[in-house]
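cron nightly-structures :: item 1 of 1
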Amino acid sequence: MGARHGYGISQGIRVGSGEALQVDTGSLYPALHRLERKKWIKAEWTVSEYNQKVKTYQLTVAGKKQLAAERANWERLTAAIAGILNPPEGAEGA
């Protein structure tokens, strides 16, 4: 995924989640600023397709590494929860 402006990020979250998740700009921009301070994303001013000046955000190398680590943690967590919700046959009540 390339650089995106804030509205594009929020739309990507909304559409990618099948409309289940919506991020308010009051939450999105402070989160983007925190990620920028941690150097996980970089921001730069560009001109949009509508000839407007917009700030776009893109993952840095450090951000990609952090994303991979967070994704691995998420996979472990969801596998653990799945194991609890769907125990192997005969393991219930053990």
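cron nightly-structures :: done
The domain at 4-85 is CATH 1.10.10.10 (Arc Repressor Mutant, subunit A).
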